[in-house]
Structure formats: structure tokens, C-alpha cells
């Protein structure tokens, strides 16, 4: 079994330090979420919780996952990287491919992602 640490809901700068610690402690990888649009208030209930509230605060950091992978790869030596969610439909294909390719080079291996087209947890 592989064990990954998630950067979901973390301050962007803290995620770098947590990744460095995960690398030193022997974790297998880092999982990075993605959100393109994050509204301050929701007009409809969030569909993935019983009470309809989302699991994060309105102003939670959602850094670009490929930039994060590149940054974390430069301060770690053995971690693998995966996006927990990636919304390719919200980006132009050329820019997405360029970002993913650059991250893969910096991360010492292929990029892996879970692609989604809509709202997911």
C-alpha cells in the first residue's frame, strides 16, 4: 500500500514544508487538489456533506496543482505526485499540457491526475 499526504485546505507555504517532512518521514507521495472557482457563499447546498456545507472555508488557498508539484519536487527527493482532482475543461488544452509536462520534468516522472468535469469532493 502507498501512503500519500494531502495538501487540501492548507496554506500554500505550509504545504511545501509538510511535503518536505513527508519526504523525510518516508511517505510515498503528495496528493494535490484543484479548484478553479471558489465562491464566497453558496446559493445551493454542497452535495457531498449531510448538512450541505462545504468542507473548506471560502478563502481557502487553491494553488495551481502543477506549480505546486514543481515547487515541492524541488525541495524533496523521492515523493510521487498526484492530483486528487483536476478540471481540464476549465483550461485551454495547450496551456494545461505545457504545465503538466513541466511539472513532470521537475517531479522526476510522469504526472498522474484524476480528471473531473464538475463539482467533486
Automatic annotation (TrEMBL):
Residues 11-109 form the Luciferase-like domain. GO terms for molecular function: oxidoreductase activity, acting on paired donors, with incorporation or reduction of molecular oxygen. It comes from the Bacteria. Pfam families: Bac_luciferase. This is Luciferase-like domain-containing protein.
